[in-house]
Amino acid sequence: MSRFCSICDSVVSEPWLQRGEWRYLLCPECSAVRLDPLPAGGWAEGFYDQGYFAGGGRGGYRDYLADEAQHRKNGRARVVLAERFGAIAPGTWVDVGCAVGFTLDEAQKAGFSGWGVELSPWAAAIARERFGLPVSSTLAGARHELPGPVDVVSMFQVLEHLPDPLAALRAARQCLHPGGILLIETWDRGSLVARLFGRRWQQITPPSVLWLFDRQSLRHALDRAGFRVSAIHRTSKEVSVGWALGVRAEKAPRVFGPMFRLLGRSALGKFGVTYMLGDLVTVGAVASVANTDTPT
Question: In 3D, which of 44, 13, 32, 58 has the Cα closest to residue 211?
Fold first, then answer.
């Protein structure tokens, strides 16, 4: 058991939850929860393949492309949110975990220049071919390929999947000019829904979900990475009925499995509904004036 927390450098962590062979640890210093052990290098490349986006299981999607209408609606809402935090087009927007590029395409329609970061070769190829987006496989790679500092970096439901979230946030800071906007969408384990569901909370999905944050741990990580948090607030998103049933079917197959098999792939399954249970949060942060590669 590794007790080191890479968010705050604490050397003490406590058992938090055991799910089959998987174990999560809680850091009492920053309150971040992480999978232990974290997966070895190269693991993600095989995990986030085409099957993650089409086929279900592993905390992935039954059919990511079929939910294009919902992804685009969420993308438009994210563009509006970025503008509220001060992002102004024309400017460059880097979306980490861009998938096939729906959010970046909406950003481009609003006047931004889009740049994607996507580990999945399958998703990255669609983003390049369908939307003409430049896509890097890592944020570090994008930093060296970008023509200069950018205006917006986004991580929508990405941070919790990264082995080293603090390193990713520092890399994002290095891509942004001072005053640039970072947008994060992630899940709040301190929310009422998460606490009510306990070990059955839908975001406890090892080994896909490596980290579970609350507002305290998010603020701590962002402060160490060189950001000033503007706001953390509950947010909603559009999902398909099929996606929602699929998620619940994974957690409770006897109850929701028959419903998913009956409705998940029907016309009703493509219908959009608003997810607003209070456990999803959006963070807006501003890049500080100082920008150094030296960890704080």
Answer: 32
Query: pLDDT at position 292, please?
Result: 47
Q: List Cβ neighbours of 229 (8 Å cut-off, separation of 6 or more).
A: 218, 219, 222, 223, 283, 284, 285
**Predicted structure pTM score:** 0.89
Residue 174 to residue 194: CA distance in whole angstroms: 33
C-alpha 195: how far from chain center: 20
Q: What's the per-residue H, E or C state across the chain?
A: CCCCCCCCCCCCCEEEEEECCEEEEECCCCCCEEEECCCCCCHHHHHCCHHHHECCCCCCCCECHHHHHHHHHHHHHHHHHHHHCCCCCCCEEEEECCCCCHHHHHHHHCCCEEEEECCCHHHHHHHHHHHCCCEECCHHHHHHHCCCCEEEEEEECCHHHCCCHHHHHHHHHHHEEEEEEEEEEEEECCCHHHHHHHHHCCCCCCCCCCEEECHHHHHHHHHHHCEEEEEEEECCEEEEHHHHHHHHHHHCHHHHHHHHHHHHCCCHHHCEEEECCCCEEEEEEEECCCCCCCCC
CA distance 287 to 19: 37
pLDDT digits (tens, 9 = 90+) for 58-106: 567 778 898 999 999 999 999 999 999 999 999 999 999 999 999 999 9
pLDDT, tens only, 217-226: 999 999 999 9
Q: Which residues of the chain have pLDDT under 70?
A: 1-2, 56-59, 241-271, 290-296
Distance CA 217, CA 214 (A): 6
What is the pairing mode between strands 113-117 and 92-96? parallel
Residues 6+ apart with CB under 8 A from 173: 182, 225, 226, 227, 287, 288, 291
